[in-house]
Amino acid sequence: MTFSFFDIFWVILAVSSFLPVLQKRQVASRRVQSLREFERSRRSRVILLIHRQESISFLGIPISSYISIEDSEQVLRAIRLTPPEVPIDLILHTPGGLVLATEQIARALIRHPAKVTVFVPHYAMSGGTMLALASDEIIMDANAVLGPVDPQLGNMAAASIIKVIEQKPISEVDDQTIIMADLSRKAIDQVQRFVRTLLKDAIPQPKIAPENIEKIVEALTTGRVTHDYPITVEEATELGLPITVGLPMSIYNLMELYPQPQGGRPSVQYIPMPYEGAPALPVPKGRPLPEDPRS
């Protein structure tokens, strides 16, 4: 039997079309396997909330993923299906998102009777920090960061809008700004009440020293810094948050299975192997997490 050029072309085209589907199935299978192994090692329910920033390659328009109502529906279902005595491990990698969705997830977490642990391999900003505050323990990479949870009205910080009213005579301020300032005060008050509720959570036991609660509320909600300010492990520990430093290697392996989609060649490359004789890294502040021999 002889094959023409067009026969070979169609075979190659069919194989090329099938390979991405096969690769996607393999990655999905590896993700499920990794999650099951992590759940077995921790004896917990593991929930991933990972948001990457993707871009449309043709137009180059960035489209940020964030915590949405769909996310809250899925996370709430996972929490609802978790028996009361089973701990929950939430792996967070997110820039934040909708206040409604974030508050729904956070309330469900503080109502869960067993321990809730949040893992932050890289960053959990804004709404992600709110979810971290709902946990009993926050386990972070030494270089990971959290962020402020001060309200934003559109693309403006609520605290900055109030500043305009405070620094200018009321006769020189237009009605729209006055209305925005009123909404800003309400938004800050609402966020502070909610953060206080999260910090006072005592299920299964108190997690924040009472004398630190108002200090944390003040630092995170009043707009003392910009909304994208990175709160380091050292600063979060100093505030009194229940921070533990050091992630199990299995968390990093899981993150490798959720890569940023590449429109072209990768912008970062390295040789994935340990080097002998490397200088010792400085020991960060905070409580170190013991090495897991099964990792």
What does this structure look like?
With 295 residues, the chain is an alpha/beta fold. The chain has helices at residues 5-42, 69-80, 99-111, 127-133, 158-167, 175-199, 210-221, 233-239, 249-256, and strands spanning 45-50, 53-56, 61-64, 88-93, 116-120, 123-124, 137-140, 145-146, 152-153, 156-157, 243-245, 287-288. The chain has a six-stranded parallel β-sheet, with helices on both faces. Helix 3 (99-111) links the parallel strand 4 (88-93) and strand 5 (116-120). Helix 5 packs across helix 6 and helix 6 (175-199) packs antiparallel against helix 7 (210-221). The protein starts with a helix and ends in a 7-residue tail after the last strand. Mean pLDDT is 84; it is low at 54-64.
What's the topology here?
Elements: H1 5-42, E1 45-50, E2 53-56, E3 61-64, H2 69-80, E4 88-93, H3 99-111, E5 116-120, E6 123-124, H4 127-133, E7 137-140, E8 145-146, E9 152-153, E10 156-157, H5 158-167, H6 175-199, H7 210-221, H8 233-239, E11 243-245, H9 249-256, E12 287-288
Parallel strand pairs: 1-4, 4-5, 5-7, 6-8, 7-11, 11-12
Antiparallel strand pairs: 2-3, 9-10
Pfam family, one: SDH_protease
InterPro entries: ClpP/crotonase-like_dom_sf, Pept_S49_ser-pept_pro
